[in-house]
Amino acid sequence: MIMKRLHILPTGTEIFLPVGSPLTEVDYESSHRLIPFGCRSGACGACVIEVLEGLGSLGEPDDDELDFLEDLGRTGGSHRLACQCRLQGDATIRVADTT
Ligand code: FES
Questions:
Q1: Which of 93, 85, 96, 92 is nearest to 19 (CA)?
Q2: pLDDT tens-digit map of 3-40
């Protein structure tokens, strides 16, 4: 099984997932809530991440995701909804709103 590395800031946690895994799998790899998922269907915006490296490793956002990111003011192309991403290659992300 080919594994890919997801580096999650600001905690600096590294998670390894099989290639093609949805990022929602992160929840099962750590006892900490590394990404604050809510609806898991691209509708609530809780899981916005900034992609620092490997934007292309997370697949292509669809039009609904792009529209919603724009509504959230996350324009500029480096933000994604983590619940809509699949890990195709190594990536470094920053959770946008942490508490
Ligand atoms: S968890 Fe709601 S948009 Fe991703």
A1: 85
A2: 999 999 999 999 999 999 999 999 999 888 999 999 99
Are 57 and 90 a contacting pair, CB within 8 Å?
yes
CA–CA gap between residue 9 and residue 95 (Å, rounded)? 6
Protein residue whose Cα sits closest to atom 3 of ligand 1:
42
* Cα–Cα distance measured from residue 93 to residue 91, given in angstroms and rounded to the nearest whole number: 6
What CA–CA distance (Å, rounded) separates 89 from 99?
Answer: 28
**Domain ranges, residue 19:** 3-95
- How many domains does the chain fold into? 1
SS3 label, residue 44:
coil
CATH code, domain carrying 30: 3.10.20.30
How would residue 97 be classed by pLDDT, with cut points 50, 70 and 90?
low
Which of 83, 85, 86, 93 for a ligand 1 pocket mutation test, highest count of atoms within 8 Å of Cβ?
83
